[in-house]
Amino acid sequence: MSNHIYTNFHGILLYRKPYKEHDLLIKFLTAEAGKKMFFVRGAMKPRFKMTADILPFTYGEYSGNLSPNGLSYIISALDISHYNNISQNIDLNAYATYIMGLIDAAFPDSTPIFRWFNQLFYGLRLIDHGIDPAIITNIFEIQLLPVFGVAPQLKHCVICGRSDLPMDFSEIYGGLLCENHFSMDPRRMHFDKRTIYYLRKFSVINLKQIRSIKVHHQVKQNLRMLLDDIYKNEVGLNLKSKHFLDQMNRFHI
Ligand SMILES: [Zn+2]
């Protein structure tokens, strides 16, 4: 590796996977080069010096070799931090893991996605600071839909374009229906005003600007039901981390 030129990069650790007896494969979402898989030789050995730098829910600045397509390497950690509350709380851990799984599923490796690096950085920070993780998760789910090729119309009525009337969501039409066109879909969601308000708001909200957010329980249930339908029927994603999250939430109730 003596000919490699090392570069500094910013990364959020997405996951770790044991490799052979003593090594690890770890995936970072980097600010500079998108998702990258790193090979860390000897990471599972007792005296490995970078153990704390590559724990789950770590982010920061590292130095290494970013390979254009193959495995990348880390040489040293320059300035790293941990999302401490997330790593110590199994609930927060489950939400954060699912969000990172969504981002991993949504984008190919080695494609710069700086906006999503920022969204993930601030999203995890909000969860770590005690903001409702179910809400932060909903925001990621809604904003990732266009990336998955499903782009519900949340700006105005899909039939007439009006946005000044009471609205409801229609799965068949893939977006909002205004009151004048409720009859077009008898199986529309029948959501209350607040649910529609948050559905629209979450589709455009910048996570960096959130300081606090409180949403009524019924709204949360409605959004959960709608997003589960859309992810199941239209996105077709089947993440282990989502099953775990669902199980965990059933267990709590
Ligand atoms: Zn209409």
Automatic annotation (TrEMBL):
Residue intervals of the DNA replication/recombination mediator RecO N-terminal domain: 7-77
GO terms for biological process, alphabetical: DNA recombination; double-strand break repair
Keyword DNA damage annotated: yes
GO (cellular component) term, any one: bacterial nucleoid
Pfam families tied to this protein: RecO_C, RecO_N
Gene3D superfamilies documented for this protein: Nucleic acid-binding proteins, Recombination protein O, C-terminal domain
InterPro entries reported for this sequence: ARFGAP/RecO, DNA_rep/recomb_RecO_N, NA-bd_OB-fold, RecO, RecO_C
Keywords, in A-Z order: DNA damage, DNA recombination, DNA repair
Function summary: Involved in DNA repair and RecF pathway recombination.
PANTHER family: DNA REPAIR PROTEIN RECO
Family: Belongs to the RecO family.
Name the record gives this protein: DNA repair protein RecO
Lineage: Bacteria, Bacillati, Bacillota, Bacilli, Lactobacillales
Encoding gene per record: recO
